[in-house]
Amino acid sequence: MITSQEFVERMKSLKPNCYMHGELIQRDDPRMMVAMKDILMTYDMVDDPRFKDILVTTSHLTGNKINRFTNVHQSVEDLLAKQKMTRELSRLSGTCIQRCMGIDMVNALSIVTKEADDKNGGKTEYHERFKAFLKEFQDKDMVGAAAQTDVKGDRMLRPHEQADPDLYMRVVERNAKGIVVRGCKVHTTVGPYCDEMIVTPCRSLTKEEGDYSVCFSVPADTKGIHMLIEAANPTARKALPAEVANHGIAHSVTIFDDVFVPWERVFLDNDPQLGARAALLFALYHRHSYTGCKPAYTDVLMGTTALIAEVSGIEKQQHVRHKIAEMISVAELVYASGIAAAHTSTKASSGTQVPDVVFCNVGRKHAGTNIYHEYDILCDICGGQPQTMPYEEEYADPRWRPYLDKYFMRKADVPPETIHRAFRLAQDLIAGPVTSNMQIAGVHGGGSPIMEDIAIWGSYPIEEKKKIARHLAGIPETPKEPKDKK
Amino acid sequence: MITSQEFVERMKSLKPNCYMHGELIQRDDPRMMVAMKDILMTYDMVDDPRFKDILVTTSHLTGNKINRFTNVHQSVEDLLAKQKMTRELSRLSGTCIQRCMGIDMVNALSIVTKEADDKNGGKTEYHERFKAFLKEFQDKDMVGAAAQTDVKGDRMLRPHEQADPDLYMRVVERNAKGIVVRGCKVHTTVGPYCDEMIVTPCRSLTKEEGDYSVCFSVPADTKGIHMLIEAANPTARKALPAEVANHGIAHSVTIFDDVFVPWERVFLDNDPQLGARAALLFALYHRHSYTGCKPAYTDVLMGTTALIAEVSGIEKQQHVRHKIAEMISVAELVYASGIAAAHTSTKASSGTQVPDVVFCNVGRKHAGTNIYHEYDILCDICGGQPQTMPYEEEYADPRWRPYLDKYFMRKADVPPETIHRAFRLAQDLIAGPVTSNMQIAGVHGGGSPIMEDIAIWGSYPIEEKKKIARHLAGIPETPKEPKDKK
Amino acid sequence: MITSQEFVERMKSLKPNCYMHGELIQRDDPRMMVAMKDILMTYDMVDDPRFKDILVTTSHLTGNKINRFTNVHQSVEDLLAKQKMTRELSRLSGTCIQRCMGIDMVNALSIVTKEADDKNGGKTEYHERFKAFLKEFQDKDMVGAAAQTDVKGDRMLRPHEQADPDLYMRVVERNAKGIVVRGCKVHTTVGPYCDEMIVTPCRSLTKEEGDYSVCFSVPADTKGIHMLIEAANPTARKALPAEVANHGIAHSVTIFDDVFVPWERVFLDNDPQLGARAALLFALYHRHSYTGCKPAYTDVLMGTTALIAEVSGIEKQQHVRHKIAEMISVAELVYASGIAAAHTSTKASSGTQVPDVVFCNVGRKHAGTNIYHEYDILCDICGGQPQTMPYEEEYADPRWRPYLDKYFMRKADVPPETIHRAFRLAQDLIAGPVTSNMQIAGVHGGGSPIMEDIAIWGSYPIEEKKKIARHLAGIPETPKEPKDKK
Amino acid sequence: MITSQEFVERMKSLKPNCYMHGELIQRDDPRMMVAMKDILMTYDMVDDPRFKDILVTTSHLTGNKINRFTNVHQSVEDLLAKQKMTRELSRLSGTCIQRCMGIDMVNALSIVTKEADDKNGGKTEYHERFKAFLKEFQDKDMVGAAAQTDVKGDRMLRPHEQADPDLYMRVVERNAKGIVVRGCKVHTTVGPYCDEMIVTPCRSLTKEEGDYSVCFSVPADTKGIHMLIEAANPTARKALPAEVANHGIAHSVTIFDDVFVPWERVFLDNDPQLGARAALLFALYHRHSYTGCKPAYTDVLMGTTALIAEVSGIEKQQHVRHKIAEMISVAELVYASGIAAAHTSTKASSGTQVPDVVFCNVGRKHAGTNIYHEYDILCDICGGQPQTMPYEEEYADPRWRPYLDKYFMRKADVPPETIHRAFRLAQDLIAGPVTSNMQIAGVHGGGSPIMEDIAIWGSYPIEEKKKIARHLAGIPETPKEPKDKK
């Protein structure tokens, strides 16, 4: 395992290919340093007594100690530990732990590469390639980006039906040494500060779409990759420095401008059925990760709501308690769904532990359909203060500070600075530059609610439920009834 | 284990003390036979290959084979098996499995009796009494009613503050042989066809309320017990007999008119703190049972919705799929919460396995706040047919049947009888004599949503969540901060 | 105007053609007398000083005094008076005023008959026929049923595509004297006790569907009409008689078995476009009626909730007030939408006043999507009592009444009979034989929420809203942009 | 009436007393010019043929032509015109029209000053003072800020119970020439660019709180007034200029540091009952204004949703239509409530038209409880693009623009710039610097949902609703029943 300082050094050694506000930026640009703060935390916390037992594990491949963010889950306990780690780390920053992107991809590929080889009767060697990659990924304690979401063009057309065939990532050339890919991936979280760009399709594919069914990984500074960056960083604090203001997040539009991938890093090619499975498996692991990070973010929102209520003297009011109980329900139902998904998980042929599809999806969906409502609750309890309070410079100004201390008082025994700090935290959460990132990622990250519905419908035993209805109704079964998929 | 026929015989042997529509009724009155059908099923199914592995277990006390509905849970697996059994049996009838009442009480008492003895330094013998009772309960394969909910009088007053002290069950005499109790319990499901009436308090109690903190069990026909019955039975079917029409449910207002309880069956007396704990523990076990039965009932509602959609030709419509996905989410989030509660369960000093409070309560609450919405969905997909269709006699009448067959057609390849059966099932569910029972029990059974909020607030680590907020806000902790309860 | 007694006599004079539970019943069968109680009220109340000013108006056709339930609305004030009358009468019974069915049909036909004549350049005489019919309808103070909803067969097929062409009402013969129609209408409220069966199509129609685009009216006992009845009547009261127990409702499946309609009563034939308009106009008037009756029913539900809270001593609790405020919001937003629809109404070529489509539909939809939630609230505040309380016979029994008086006490100063009456009212509302009728009609009556969405989409200026977006985005308009329909 | 340029000149002539980011700023600071853009629009549009008929009216006081934003409403039509004007102007900017603040205050004061004089038997001259003020306000075409919300300290204590008596605005001195006031008002929208600071209490007051029951108006640069500013301005556009990016909003924390108010501008003093009435009346007028501006903002959100759906090729998808129909329902139910409030309005003794309390409050509350949900819908349909798209500089860069044009394509016939413009509009709405202002003001502006509940409870005839319940239940009325307030 490496230190966060070593990680930053490695980032600096990559060839710059990230653009922002018209500039080609360095990976240790101050704005990137804020955005990657959560990633750095995943390195630092391996030595923290509160977290090391859960953050450090043993590689099933090498037997070495590894950071759990590079682990391929082998058991129910692994899945539970990943979920717990995600919840406990994420809430330290008030934003997103980010490093799940790579590891969720790695787990998906661990399964698909093996299934491809099984299907091909040993004529392919995807899984061996994957294991070589995994060894390096673990040994170097790497961060991977999940370059999954294609730009997708006309939403009513399939990849091969688009006016421009490049609107989904595709192979444009295959040669002795490897393949050349073209396309553009969006919403690439950690793109600007990752080691590897791990790529899979993002949807179901038809038999015409062999060129679109490609999985691979390349270093983030590979020739032909250009990243256009968006960073959601909090407003810097001077007078009232606070941890919430230290953590941001960045995403890239990631252009693959005829990028060469050597065969050693091609993990699937020309297999629409397994290409789609890779897409679904990444989504599945990522939705399971959400059952950890989303409760963490609700912890932050509910803790802030409770804190604001406390300093305002209203924490025992029935409506406040009722609203916080709503937040608790969201957090714990989502967390419960992740626990249940782990406990009903199954083993893939590769040995990788696969969480239950239905529980992951109902959990992720519940989070996604409640996120704006949780903001509504915090906003409701705060009143308008987080929006209209003066800037920090006024608070720091000796002319105005006495007024602000006098007039922002709430409960008489709470010091004025505590009031200001509590409301500035609320401001960062509901009225700051990171707010919309958390709202929008809360809905769409890991798949929008409608995608969870589709995943649920794809695996739910609805025919079994109709059988129950027929049994109660006295309708005899006939050979014509449809069957559930599994 | 006994057979259902033996159970009915035992019921007939009890002294009649149940009144309904102005009559003193027998326990095998035809209306009671319909109401107790689910109970009978719990006896019959021990021989059914689909259920016997989960329904039969081994007593930790005697080592004998017992019906799981008399088991004191000893492990995570026991809790999971109870939850699964509850879901799988409940959905066979389209109503409520009923027999959870007694076993949830028994589990609560297994803990409280031991804790009382521990607290009293061995000066009491509640747990030994309990074990003797449990042995009989298991050996005789008994059904217990949970006579818990007091009539409660003025909701703003505590038990000892009421104008009439009998508005909560209380001890009015203690003598050498036992105690005499007076009061009235309501909503006593299975009251009219149970072996034992198991009694605990239903709320928190203060030190003035020693007489109210009593737990005991007596045979259901004990002198002084009078039951006034309400039965929710489906409309009988002649032309189109169906399983849904075979199952009802009954409740009693249970008057304890100075009932004598021998000391052997007194499981707690004069201990407000543990009396309240008994109340909470029964609620906890019962809410865990709800994480099994409520998903079962959603299975029935969603299966019927899917069936109606199928015969109407609309099952692939997006809005239908979206609405069924909402039902799936309710069922599986509630089920997940029960799984999570089992997996994070702890052991009481008695050895009984205690499910997690927060997961049980968020699960039960989610069910309770969604039940009317689920009816709304089924109603929405059905249209008005379940309300306004002619009576079965018209369907059976050769003059009208051809018209009803002709005009109730939907998809051309679905036989008309299937259509009629499907809509009559929907009618039984949303527009029949059992409907309101399932709606109201869906909200209040095992505790209303507001009671779950109270339970959640009583055990949730909200101070820990405020700490997260303070950490992010840069507010230093001081010795003054409140602490979480545990 | 006639008296209610005269109306009953007229009903008795009709040829019996209603079947129920295997019997051919009389129109003054005791079960029908309960069901038609609301209709009788509309006759009786013309002499009641509280209602006569709003219930009696002047015919624009004859200048005679008429019951407003036979009026063709001529002004904003007429629409407002109709809405107000509907709210004020409906809440006297706790169920549905029923007589809106006919008058909403009459208003729709007043418009369509004129538009047909206009369109046909005076070659048809539909409007004259209509006026002759209207004169009789008003003079005889008639009750009309709206036989609108066809059985509809396969929901994915249009009328002319069905396997059986009779699954929508159609003309099977046209001759010198009139037409012969065949089909079956469902959900015919007041069918069993109306004077006239008024018929229109229930949906959009294509040019192939001329035979389906027929509007007419015939006496309810016309040869070939058979009604199969369903009645939702409350449980009769003996010990605690109450107004709520006096009012029910009945519906029929109405079979038109080759019914002859003379040309004088044919109001449209062979005009799919205006046939569809008749369907929409009836729906529009009926949804406007819902903006009166639905708030009335919420008045009943909220009044009961407040009464239960009062007698239980919890009426000032914050959660109770919050929940009642939710009910108030539903009632008054729906009522406001009807006022707004009246104030933005327009005049048809016939002179009839047409309420605004969007306001009527958002109002009706808001009611329909909240009805189950309102039941949830009343259920929540009541607790389980309305379901499990003993039957009235036990309350009347001198042996049990003292117990029931003692133990059902709540606030000490509320007499026990008041408690029993309040909870029996709640029982009739949420757990009685009429409950499902009000729930299901609450969703579907006048059109299901999805039908309101379709109506809204059919007339909302969404292109204008996109223009606003383009203006803000700086996107120039081009001639290609779609236009709003009107 | 003046021009917008004259208004800006007048602003420049005021003494600077606004502080922001540590600076004393000018009122025509570029950041203020963006924030006041909506105010300027209210001057400019009096000449716009689309708006002049509704924006220009005649003073009832002077008979002069005035801007309706200075009008005291005299009729139903005035209230409807104000509501319509507010909707039509607000949606031109995608933010808040702002100028309602002053006029809602002026209308409230027109009533209270008269009622005070009436109550005092003509011994006070508040209404004459008010009329003199109104004349100037109209003649000079002024903008007023509503300095209403006090800082409020401990939320469980009344004004006179606070540790610091200044936590609500109060009179600290009364002398021959006027009064001296001290306190701090927050959320003062338009504070930094208004002519007059109009002040009322913000809550109910007790008899001890005479010093707190003061209403007055002073010029915004009066000695002792200090404003600490917060501005929510959109990100400036260079490459893709757009109207949405031209409009922001600013608020102040407004400190009254012993400010002298001459008697001519004191509109109420030492009258807690009428002080509270002023608070309620301002809230009432402001909530009526919300029934105009809130539908306008929903117009913007729904138009953008429809535009995004159109360019993505999904506008006919059922789920998209369903979600936009939800937005339509919110917009039109809220608008309907304002129409209903106008049509059921009454006249105050001053002649001012007062909208109905219940309709205004259910409307405002419906808006407030749905605002986050509307964002959720727009976010849902957009996907993650509005958050993660590259900055405008990359779009302007000839190196990247071809890639961005190629890869952001959706429907093949929509030009790439249109796609970029549409998503940048969505970004400004859901992920920009103004987003949180619209979310938080959407909940709290004009009063939080809980305040509307309180207002509804204060005037709703709940006892009448209980009477309906008693009538249905057969419970006789007794003289003890409580009465509704009016």
Could you explain the architecture of this structure?
The structure is a homotetramer of 486-residue chains. Chain A has 486 residues and is of the alpha+beta class. The first copy, chain A, has 2 domains: 4-270, Beta Barrel (Butyryl-CoA Dehydrogenase, subunit A, domain 2); 279-464, Butyryl-CoA Dehydrogenase, subunit A, domain 3. Helix content of chain A is 48%, strand content 15%. In chain A, a hairpin with a 2-residue loop joins strand 1 and strand 2 (23-25). The longest helix of chain A has 41 residues, at 272-312. The model of chain A has no long low-confidence stretch (mean pLDDT 97). Chains A and D meet through strand 7, strand 10, strand 11, helix 10 and helix 11 of A and strand 7, strand 10, strand 11, helix 10 and helix 11 of D.
Number of helices of chain A: 17
Give the strand order, joined by hyphens, for the main sheet of chain A.
2-1-10-11-7-6
Largest interface chains and counts: A-D, 79 and 79 residues
Mean pLDDT of chain A: 97
Structural class of the secondary elements of chain A?
alpha+beta
Instruction: Supply the number of structural domains of chain A.
Output: 2
The quaternary state of the protein chains shown equals homotetramer
Poorly predicted ranges of chain A (pLDDT <50, ≥5 residues)?
none
